[in-house]
Predict the 3D structure of the following.
Amino acid sequence: MTCLRFRLRRLLPLYLDHAASPATVARIERHLLDCSGCRATLVRLRDAKSLLGELPAVPAPPFERLMSRTPAASPRLSWMVPPVLRHFAADALIASVLFVAFTLLYTHTASARNRAFDLSAFRGVELRRIAETHDPHVIVQGVVSGISGDPNEENRRFRLTDPNDRNAFVVCEVLDGDPQSVPKQGARVRVWGVTRYDSNPDHRWFEVHPVLKVEVLR
């Protein structure tokens, strides 16, 4: 499926050339974890860059020679459009583009929230082995040992701990606007989501972000 994160897709060449800022790199890598379309685009860009690098350098002809081969432009009849009509047409075009973009974005967002995800694509991982997995789609379970974050913040976060090993934990984040609630502290839960490593110096922990489903165990 085509990704509609157009602004982020335009940054992929910078990411490929190692010219993006650290914050942009983090955004792109988080997005790539759960977007097969952008991962495929990045592979195509990398292959194209490698192919261009293998082509032999060809010297460019002198500028004067190129200009001598360029035919003279034929005169065109200029049509005079009143300024009022030009401004009206420009405003109408901008309004149409914004309307279409809003409709596509709203439809994509609504369908993404209501789309059922395939449970067979997720693999159960023990919390103490979360650092060893290379599959981003995981299922983890444990005890909610602490809840942090302000409900007014963009994300809601809770800490999931292995009851048999307090040093084994993962931080789970529920996206703002997601209808599912954060589980209560002390609850034993099973979580489906996308795992990643947060390299922030104040964190340096593994996360399940975003959380796609939470099941309270008895």
In short: Residues 85 and 203 are 57 Å apart (CA to CA). The chain is about 35% helix and 25% strand. The first helix runs from residue 6 to 9. Residues 120-216 form a domain with the OB fold (Dihydrolipoamide Acetyltransferase, E2P) fold (CATH 2.40.50.140).
